[in-house]
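WARN no homologs supplied; continuing
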Amino acid sequence: MNDTVPEKAFALAEMHGTPLFCYSATRLADAAWAFRVFTDSLPLPTETYYSYKTNYLPRLCEDLASMGIGAEVTSLHEWRLARSLHQPSSIVVNGIGKAAGLLHAALDGEPPRLINIETDSEIDILCSRPPARPPVRVGMRIRVPGLSGETGADPTEGWQRGETKFGWSSTGAAVLAAAKRLAASDNVILEALHLHLGGQLVSAATFERALSGICALLDRLAALGISVTSLDLGGGLASGWVEKRRKGPLLQLAQTLGALMQPTVQKTPDLAGITAVVADHAARLRMCGVDQLLFEPGRYLAEPALSAVASVVAVRHDDDRNTAVLDIGTNALHCWRGDETRPVHIGRVPIQADLTYELVGPLCHRSDTFGRVTVPGPLTPGTLIGLDAVGAYSLGDWIANAWDRPGVFHLEEATPLWRPQAPAEIFQAPLDPVAPQQIL
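OK structure emitted
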Protein backbone atom coordinates (compact mmCIF):
# COMPACT_ATOMS: atom_id res chain seq x y z
CA MET A 1 0.00 0.00 0.00
CA ASN A 2 1.17 3.53 -0.76
CA ASP A 3 0.45 5.17 2.62
CA THR A 4 0.79 8.70 1.25
CA VAL A 5 -2.26 8.39 -1.01
CA PRO A 6 -4.92 9.24 1.65
CA GLU A 7 -2.85 12.17 2.89
CA LYS A 8 -2.39 13.57 -0.63
CA ALA A 9 -6.07 13.00 -1.43
CA PHE A 10 -7.14 14.98 1.65
CA ALA A 11 -4.78 17.81 0.66
CA LEU A 12 -6.33 17.95 -2.81
CA ALA A 13 -9.81 17.97 -1.30
CA GLU A 14 -8.90 20.87 0.99
CA MET A 15 -7.77 22.86 -2.05
CA HIS A 16 -10.51 21.91 -4.53
CA GLY A 17 -13.49 20.86 -2.42
CA THR A 18 -15.49 17.66 -2.39
CA PRO A 19 -16.62 15.24 -3.65
CA LEU A 20 -13.38 14.48 -5.43
CA PHE A 21 -11.84 11.48 -7.17
CA CYS A 22 -8.07 10.98 -6.94
CA TYR A 23 -6.06 8.81 -9.32
CA SER A 24 -2.78 7.24 -8.15
CA ALA A 25 -0.37 6.30 -10.93
CA THR A 26 1.93 4.84 -8.29
CA ARG A 27 -0.65 2.39 -7.07
CA LEU A 28 -1.49 1.46 -10.64
CA ALA A 29 2.17 0.76 -11.37
CA ASP A 30 2.47 -1.33 -8.20
CA ALA A 31 -0.56 -3.42 -9.20
CA ALA A 32 0.74 -3.85 -12.76
CA TRP A 33 4.12 -4.99 -11.44
CA ALA A 34 2.48 -7.52 -9.09
CA PHE A 35 0.34 -8.87 -11.91
CA ARG A 36 3.41 -9.20 -14.12
CA VAL A 37 5.14 -11.23 -11.38
CA PHE A 38 2.09 -13.53 -11.34
CA THR A 39 1.95 -14.03 -15.12
CA ASP A 40 5.71 -14.58 -15.29
CA SER A 41 5.27 -17.47 -12.85
CA LEU A 42 2.84 -19.31 -15.14
CA PRO A 43 4.12 -22.27 -17.16
CA LEU A 44 2.78 -20.92 -20.47
CA PRO A 45 3.59 -17.61 -22.21
CA THR A 46 1.01 -15.03 -21.18
CA GLU A 47 -0.34 -11.80 -22.69
CA THR A 48 -2.19 -9.16 -20.63
CA TYR A 49 -5.01 -6.87 -21.80
CA TYR A 50 -6.61 -4.35 -19.42
CA SER A 51 -10.42 -4.40 -19.23
CA TYR A 52 -11.56 -0.91 -20.25
CA LYS A 53 -15.08 -1.37 -18.93
CA THR A 54 -13.66 -1.50 -15.40
CA ASN A 55 -12.44 2.08 -15.55
CA TYR A 56 -11.79 3.94 -18.79
CA LEU A 57 -10.22 7.04 -17.28
CA PRO A 58 -8.03 8.04 -20.25
CA ARG A 59 -4.92 8.75 -18.16
CA LEU A 60 -5.18 5.35 -16.46
CA CYS A 61 -5.50 3.60 -19.82
CA GLU A 62 -2.59 5.62 -21.19
CA ASP A 63 -0.36 4.70 -18.25
CA LEU A 64 -1.14 1.00 -18.66
CA ALA A 65 -0.39 1.23 -22.37
CA SER A 66 3.02 2.71 -21.54
CA MET A 67 3.67 -0.37 -19.37
CA GLY A 68 3.10 -2.68 -22.34
CA ILE A 69 -0.38 -3.79 -21.25
CA GLY A 70 -2.91 -4.07 -24.07
CA ALA A 71 -6.60 -3.20 -24.10
CA GLU A 72 -9.74 -5.34 -23.83
CA VAL A 73 -12.87 -3.54 -25.00
CA THR A 74 -16.59 -4.28 -25.00
CA SER A 75 -18.14 -1.26 -26.74
CA LEU A 76 -17.53 1.04 -29.67
CA HIS A 77 -16.56 3.93 -27.38
CA GLU A 78 -13.96 1.81 -25.62
CA TRP A 79 -12.61 0.66 -29.00
CA ARG A 80 -12.13 4.27 -30.09
CA LEU A 81 -10.31 5.14 -26.88
CA ALA A 82 -8.13 2.03 -27.17
CA ARG A 83 -7.29 2.85 -30.80
CA SER A 84 -6.00 6.25 -29.70
CA LEU A 85 -3.44 4.42 -27.54
CA HIS A 86 -2.82 1.06 -29.25
CA GLN A 87 -2.43 -0.62 -32.57
CA PRO A 88 -5.25 -3.10 -33.28
CA SER A 89 -2.85 -5.97 -32.64
CA SER A 90 -2.78 -4.92 -28.96
CA ILE A 91 -6.58 -4.95 -28.52
CA VAL A 92 -8.88 -7.86 -27.61
CA VAL A 93 -12.55 -7.37 -28.51
CA ASN A 94 -15.20 -8.85 -26.22
CA GLY A 95 -18.84 -8.34 -25.29
CA ILE A 96 -22.24 -9.80 -26.01
CA GLY A 97 -23.43 -6.72 -27.94
CA LYS A 98 -20.48 -6.16 -30.24
CA ALA A 99 -22.62 -6.82 -33.35
CA ALA A 100 -24.23 -3.41 -32.70
CA GLY A 101 -21.26 -1.55 -34.19
CA LEU A 102 -18.14 -2.70 -32.36
CA LEU A 103 -17.62 -5.81 -34.48
CA HIS A 104 -17.86 -3.89 -37.74
CA ALA A 105 -15.43 -1.23 -36.50
CA ALA A 106 -12.96 -3.91 -35.42
CA LEU A 107 -13.15 -5.51 -38.87
CA ASP A 108 -12.51 -2.23 -40.69
CA GLY A 109 -8.78 -2.16 -41.35
CA GLU A 110 -6.08 -4.07 -39.51
CA PRO A 111 -7.76 -6.75 -37.37
CA PRO A 112 -7.42 -6.78 -33.58
CA ARG A 113 -5.36 -9.27 -31.61
CA LEU A 114 -8.44 -11.40 -30.96
CA ILE A 115 -12.21 -11.18 -31.24
CA ASN A 116 -14.00 -13.34 -28.70
CA ILE A 117 -17.46 -14.09 -30.06
CA GLU A 118 -20.59 -15.18 -28.23
CA THR A 119 -23.46 -15.44 -30.72
CA ASP A 120 -24.39 -17.13 -33.96
CA SER A 121 -25.04 -13.67 -35.45
CA GLU A 122 -21.39 -12.78 -34.96
CA ILE A 123 -20.38 -15.95 -36.79
CA ASP A 124 -22.67 -14.92 -39.66
CA ILE A 125 -20.95 -11.53 -39.89
CA LEU A 126 -17.45 -12.99 -39.75
CA CYS A 127 -18.13 -15.72 -42.29
CA SER A 128 -19.74 -13.31 -44.75
CA ARG A 129 -16.71 -11.03 -45.02
CA PRO A 130 -15.18 -10.65 -48.48
CA PRO A 131 -12.72 -13.53 -48.97
CA ALA A 132 -10.01 -11.15 -50.14
CA ARG A 133 -9.71 -9.66 -46.64
CA PRO A 134 -7.11 -11.23 -44.32
CA PRO A 135 -8.56 -13.80 -41.89
CA VAL A 136 -9.43 -12.62 -38.37
CA ARG A 137 -8.28 -14.44 -35.26
CA VAL A 138 -11.26 -15.32 -33.08
CA GLY A 139 -12.03 -17.01 -29.81
CA MET A 140 -15.24 -18.54 -28.54
CA ARG A 141 -16.63 -17.48 -25.18
CA ILE A 142 -17.32 -20.58 -23.13
CA ARG A 143 -19.20 -21.12 -19.90
CA VAL A 144 -18.45 -24.11 -17.72
CA PRO A 145 -21.57 -25.37 -15.91
CA GLY A 146 -21.41 -24.41 -12.24
CA LEU A 147 -19.10 -21.48 -12.95
CA SER A 148 -21.58 -19.10 -14.53
CA GLY A 149 -21.21 -16.26 -12.05
CA GLU A 150 -19.20 -15.02 -9.13
CA THR A 151 -18.02 -17.97 -7.10
CA GLY A 152 -16.69 -18.07 -3.59
CA ALA A 153 -16.64 -20.23 -0.50
CA ASP A 154 -20.27 -21.18 -1.04
CA PRO A 155 -20.52 -22.69 -4.55
CA THR A 156 -24.17 -21.67 -4.71
CA GLU A 157 -23.40 -17.98 -4.21
CA GLY A 158 -24.70 -17.05 -7.66
CA TRP A 159 -28.07 -18.65 -6.98
CA GLN A 160 -30.12 -15.46 -7.44
CA ARG A 161 -28.42 -14.49 -10.70
CA GLY A 162 -30.29 -16.98 -12.85
CA GLU A 163 -28.89 -18.42 -16.04
CA THR A 164 -25.93 -16.63 -17.55
CA LYS A 165 -26.38 -14.87 -20.89
CA PHE A 166 -22.73 -15.31 -21.85
CA GLY A 167 -21.07 -17.83 -24.12
CA TRP A 168 -21.66 -21.42 -25.21
CA SER A 169 -21.95 -24.24 -22.68
CA SER A 170 -18.80 -26.33 -22.61
CA THR A 171 -20.87 -29.51 -22.37
CA GLY A 172 -23.54 -28.74 -24.99
CA ALA A 173 -23.88 -29.59 -28.65
CA ALA A 174 -24.18 -25.99 -29.87
CA VAL A 175 -20.56 -25.20 -29.04
CA LEU A 176 -19.41 -27.98 -31.38
CA ALA A 177 -21.64 -26.76 -34.20
CA ALA A 178 -20.36 -23.21 -33.78
CA ALA A 179 -16.73 -24.38 -33.70
CA LYS A 180 -17.23 -26.39 -36.89
CA ARG A 181 -18.63 -23.34 -38.69
CA LEU A 182 -15.66 -21.23 -37.66
CA ALA A 183 -13.08 -23.90 -38.43
CA ALA A 184 -14.54 -24.34 -41.92
CA SER A 185 -14.48 -20.63 -42.79
CA ASP A 186 -11.61 -19.10 -44.75
CA ASN A 187 -12.38 -15.73 -43.14
CA VAL A 188 -11.40 -16.61 -39.60
CA ILE A 189 -8.74 -18.44 -37.64
CA LEU A 190 -10.27 -20.17 -34.63
CA GLU A 191 -7.46 -19.48 -32.20
CA ALA A 192 -8.85 -19.41 -28.66
CA LEU A 193 -11.39 -20.41 -26.08
CA HIS A 194 -12.38 -17.60 -23.75
CA LEU A 195 -13.57 -17.79 -20.13
CA HIS A 196 -14.64 -15.14 -17.66
CA LEU A 197 -15.18 -16.74 -14.27
CA GLY A 198 -16.77 -13.85 -12.37
CA GLY A 199 -15.61 -11.06 -10.09
CA GLN A 200 -13.59 -10.82 -6.87
CA LEU A 201 -12.07 -14.23 -7.58
CA VAL A 202 -9.73 -15.48 -4.89
CA SER A 203 -9.85 -19.27 -4.96
CA ALA A 204 -7.59 -21.57 -6.94
CA ALA A 205 -10.41 -24.12 -6.82
CA THR A 206 -12.39 -21.96 -9.26
CA PHE A 207 -9.60 -22.23 -11.81
CA GLU A 208 -9.29 -25.96 -11.19
CA ARG A 209 -12.94 -26.50 -12.08
CA ALA A 210 -12.67 -24.16 -15.05
CA LEU A 211 -9.58 -25.76 -16.55
CA SER A 212 -10.97 -29.25 -16.02
CA GLY A 213 -14.08 -28.24 -17.96
CA ILE A 214 -12.05 -26.60 -20.71
CA CYS A 215 -9.79 -29.62 -21.11
CA ALA A 216 -12.87 -31.82 -21.50
CA LEU A 217 -14.14 -29.48 -24.22
CA LEU A 218 -10.74 -29.50 -25.94
CA ASP A 219 -10.98 -33.29 -26.09
CA ARG A 220 -14.43 -33.05 -27.70
CA LEU A 221 -13.12 -30.55 -30.25
CA ALA A 222 -10.09 -32.73 -30.98
CA ALA A 223 -12.43 -35.59 -31.86
CA LEU A 224 -13.76 -33.31 -34.64
CA GLY A 225 -10.26 -32.43 -35.80
CA ILE A 226 -10.48 -28.93 -34.29
CA SER A 227 -7.82 -27.41 -32.03
CA VAL A 228 -7.02 -23.97 -30.62
CA THR A 229 -3.68 -22.48 -29.65
CA SER A 230 -4.72 -19.96 -26.98
CA LEU A 231 -6.75 -19.94 -23.79
CA ASP A 232 -8.14 -16.58 -22.66
CA LEU A 233 -8.85 -16.76 -18.91
CA GLY A 234 -10.47 -13.33 -18.74
CA GLY A 235 -10.34 -11.19 -15.61
CA GLY A 236 -12.13 -10.97 -12.28
CA LEU A 237 -9.18 -11.53 -9.95
CA ALA A 238 -9.61 -9.75 -6.62
CA SER A 239 -7.20 -6.90 -6.04
CA GLY A 240 -6.52 -7.75 -2.41
CA TRP A 241 -7.86 -4.38 -1.25
CA VAL A 242 -11.53 -5.25 -0.72
CA GLU A 243 -12.99 -7.76 1.73
CA LYS A 244 -15.96 -9.69 0.34
CA ARG A 245 -18.37 -11.62 2.52
CA ARG A 246 -19.38 -14.73 0.58
CA LYS A 247 -22.91 -15.95 1.09
CA GLY A 248 -25.59 -18.05 -0.54
CA PRO A 249 -28.66 -20.19 0.20
CA LEU A 250 -26.73 -22.63 2.39
CA LEU A 251 -25.69 -19.84 4.75
CA GLN A 252 -29.13 -18.27 4.59
CA LEU A 253 -30.78 -21.56 5.48
CA ALA A 254 -28.40 -22.12 8.40
CA GLN A 255 -29.08 -18.64 9.76
CA THR A 256 -32.84 -19.14 9.36
CA LEU A 257 -32.54 -22.31 11.45
CA GLY A 258 -30.73 -20.34 14.15
CA ALA A 259 -27.19 -21.55 13.51
CA LEU A 260 -24.53 -19.06 14.53
CA MET A 261 -22.76 -18.91 11.17
CA GLN A 262 -21.07 -15.93 9.56
CA PRO A 263 -20.24 -15.41 5.89
CA THR A 264 -16.75 -16.36 4.80
CA VAL A 265 -14.64 -13.25 4.30
CA GLN A 266 -12.30 -13.34 1.30
CA LYS A 267 -9.86 -10.68 0.21
CA THR A 268 -6.51 -11.80 -1.24
CA PRO A 269 -6.37 -13.93 -4.39
CA ASP A 270 -4.42 -17.17 -4.10
CA LEU A 271 -2.04 -16.41 -6.96
CA ALA A 272 0.39 -19.15 -5.96
CA GLY A 273 -2.46 -21.65 -5.89
CA ILE A 274 -3.75 -20.48 -9.28
CA THR A 275 -0.24 -20.84 -10.70
CA ALA A 276 -0.08 -24.39 -9.35
CA VAL A 277 -3.45 -25.23 -10.93
CA VAL A 278 -2.31 -23.97 -14.33
CA ALA A 279 0.93 -25.94 -13.93
CA ASP A 280 -1.07 -29.10 -13.16
CA HIS A 281 -3.03 -28.70 -16.42
CA ALA A 282 -0.19 -27.36 -18.58
CA ALA A 283 0.86 -30.71 -20.04
CA ARG A 284 -2.70 -31.61 -21.03
CA LEU A 285 -3.28 -28.15 -22.50
CA ARG A 286 -0.14 -28.47 -24.61
CA MET A 287 -1.21 -31.92 -25.81
CA CYS A 288 -4.44 -30.29 -27.01
CA GLY A 289 -2.49 -27.59 -28.85
CA VAL A 290 -2.75 -24.73 -26.34
CA ASP A 291 0.58 -22.93 -25.96
CA GLN A 292 -0.52 -19.40 -25.01
CA LEU A 293 -2.55 -17.80 -22.19
CA LEU A 294 -4.31 -14.43 -22.17
CA PHE A 295 -5.58 -12.50 -19.15
CA GLU A 296 -7.91 -9.49 -19.07
CA PRO A 297 -7.50 -7.99 -15.58
CA GLY A 298 -9.71 -5.09 -14.59
CA ARG A 299 -10.27 -4.65 -10.87
CA TYR A 300 -6.85 -6.10 -9.96
CA LEU A 301 -5.21 -3.14 -11.71
CA ALA A 302 -7.76 -0.35 -11.41
CA GLU A 303 -9.29 -0.88 -7.97
CA PRO A 304 -6.44 0.51 -5.86
CA ALA A 305 -5.67 3.28 -8.35
CA LEU A 306 -8.66 5.46 -7.52
CA SER A 307 -9.92 6.89 -4.24
CA ALA A 308 -12.71 9.33 -3.43
CA VAL A 309 -12.85 12.10 -0.84
CA ALA A 310 -16.17 13.28 0.53
CA SER A 311 -17.21 15.75 3.21
CA VAL A 312 -19.61 15.24 6.05
CA VAL A 313 -22.52 17.59 5.39
CA ALA A 314 -24.76 16.63 8.32
CA VAL A 315 -24.85 14.43 11.42
CA ARG A 316 -27.64 12.92 13.43
CA HIS A 317 -27.57 11.39 16.91
CA ASP A 318 -30.48 9.05 17.57
CA ASP A 319 -30.21 7.25 20.93
CA ASP A 320 -27.21 4.93 20.46
CA ARG A 321 -27.00 5.42 16.70
CA ASN A 322 -24.83 8.09 15.08
CA THR A 323 -25.22 8.90 11.38
CA ALA A 324 -22.97 11.05 9.19
CA VAL A 325 -24.25 12.15 5.79
CA LEU A 326 -21.65 12.57 3.03
CA ASP A 327 -21.79 14.64 -0.14
CA ILE A 328 -21.20 11.60 -2.38
CA GLY A 329 -23.59 8.73 -3.04
CA THR A 330 -23.48 5.17 -4.28
CA ASN A 331 -24.59 6.35 -7.72
CA ALA A 332 -21.07 7.80 -8.11
CA LEU A 333 -19.56 4.87 -6.21
CA HIS A 334 -21.54 2.03 -7.73
CA CYS A 335 -18.71 -0.30 -6.71
CA TRP A 336 -19.59 0.07 -3.02
CA ARG A 337 -21.70 -2.97 -2.17
CA GLY A 338 -23.21 -4.11 1.08
CA ASP A 339 -21.28 -7.40 1.12
CA GLU A 340 -17.90 -5.70 0.64
CA THR A 341 -15.65 -3.63 2.89
CA ARG A 342 -13.21 -1.07 1.54
CA PRO A 343 -10.63 1.05 3.40
CA VAL A 344 -12.11 4.23 4.90
CA HIS A 345 -9.85 7.10 6.00
CA ILE A 346 -10.99 9.81 8.43
CA GLY A 347 -9.76 13.39 8.31
CA ARG A 348 -8.88 15.48 11.35
CA VAL A 349 -11.25 15.07 14.31
CA PRO A 350 -10.90 16.21 17.92
CA ILE A 351 -9.54 13.32 20.01
CA GLN A 352 -12.11 12.62 22.71
CA ALA A 353 -13.56 9.11 22.81
CA ASP A 354 -14.27 6.33 20.34
CA LEU A 355 -17.58 6.79 18.54
CA THR A 356 -19.20 4.64 15.86
CA TYR A 357 -20.91 6.28 12.90
CA GLU A 358 -22.86 4.93 9.97
CA LEU A 359 -21.64 6.71 6.84
CA VAL A 360 -24.44 7.34 4.35
CA GLY A 361 -24.75 9.20 1.07
CA PRO A 362 -27.27 11.91 0.18
CA LEU A 363 -29.47 9.75 -2.07
CA CYS A 364 -33.04 9.03 -1.09
CA HIS A 365 -32.82 5.27 -0.76
CA ARG A 366 -31.75 3.09 2.16
CA SER A 367 -29.02 1.29 0.28
CA ASP A 368 -27.03 4.50 -0.11
CA THR A 369 -24.66 3.60 2.71
CA PHE A 370 -20.93 3.02 3.13
CA GLY A 371 -21.03 1.01 6.36
CA ARG A 372 -19.90 1.81 9.87
CA VAL A 373 -16.65 3.28 11.10
CA THR A 374 -15.22 3.86 14.57
CA VAL A 375 -13.47 7.20 15.02
CA PRO A 376 -11.55 8.70 17.98
CA GLY A 377 -13.81 11.76 18.22
CA PRO A 378 -17.01 13.31 16.88
CA LEU A 379 -17.60 13.82 13.17
CA THR A 380 -18.87 17.28 12.28
CA PRO A 381 -19.94 19.00 9.05
CA GLY A 382 -16.80 19.56 7.01
CA THR A 383 -14.91 16.48 8.22
CA LEU A 384 -13.20 14.80 5.28
CA ILE A 385 -13.84 11.11 4.63
CA GLY A 386 -11.64 9.09 2.26
CA LEU A 387 -13.30 6.17 0.50
CA ASP A 388 -10.47 4.05 -0.89
CA ALA A 389 -10.01 1.38 -3.56
CA VAL A 390 -12.92 2.59 -5.70
CA GLY A 391 -11.21 2.33 -9.08
CA ALA A 392 -13.25 -0.62 -10.34
CA TYR A 393 -16.77 0.02 -11.64
CA SER A 394 -17.21 3.53 -10.27
CA LEU A 395 -16.27 6.15 -12.89
CA GLY A 396 -18.51 5.41 -15.83
CA ASP A 397 -20.22 2.29 -14.52
CA TRP A 398 -23.51 4.12 -14.28
CA ILE A 399 -23.50 4.45 -18.07
CA ALA A 400 -23.17 0.70 -18.51
CA ASN A 401 -19.74 -0.08 -19.93
CA ALA A 402 -19.60 3.10 -22.04
CA TRP A 403 -22.72 2.58 -24.10
CA ASP A 404 -24.73 5.60 -25.23
CA ARG A 405 -27.14 7.22 -22.82
CA PRO A 406 -30.55 6.45 -24.36
CA GLY A 407 -32.87 9.18 -25.52
CA VAL A 408 -36.08 9.95 -23.63
CA PHE A 409 -39.53 10.08 -25.19
CA HIS A 410 -42.92 11.15 -23.86
CA LEU A 411 -44.91 7.92 -23.66
CA GLU A 412 -48.36 9.25 -24.49
CA GLU A 413 -47.38 11.97 -26.98
CA ALA A 414 -44.53 9.95 -28.55
CA THR A 415 -42.37 13.08 -28.65
CA PRO A 416 -38.65 13.26 -27.88
CA LEU A 417 -37.65 14.91 -24.62
CA TRP A 418 -33.92 14.26 -24.51
CA ARG A 419 -31.55 13.20 -27.27
CA PRO A 420 -29.20 10.21 -26.96
CA GLN A 421 -25.73 11.10 -25.77
CA ALA A 422 -22.34 9.46 -25.99
CA PRO A 423 -20.28 9.11 -22.80
CA ALA A 424 -17.84 11.79 -23.96
CA GLU A 425 -20.73 14.26 -24.14
CA ILE A 426 -21.91 13.33 -20.67
CA PHE A 427 -18.48 13.94 -19.22
CA GLN A 428 -17.81 17.19 -21.10
CA ALA A 429 -21.12 19.00 -21.47
CA PRO A 430 -24.12 19.86 -19.27
CA LEU A 431 -27.16 17.66 -19.68
CA ASP A 432 -29.46 20.32 -21.06
CA PRO A 433 -32.73 19.26 -22.70
CA VAL A 434 -32.86 19.99 -26.43
CA ALA A 435 -35.57 20.86 -28.87
CA PRO A 436 -37.13 17.93 -30.77
CA GLN A 437 -35.58 19.05 -34.06
CA GLN A 438 -32.11 18.60 -32.48
CA ILE A 439 -32.72 14.94 -31.74
CA LEU A 440 -31.64 13.53 -35.12
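Residues 204-223 form the longest helix (20 residues).
OK
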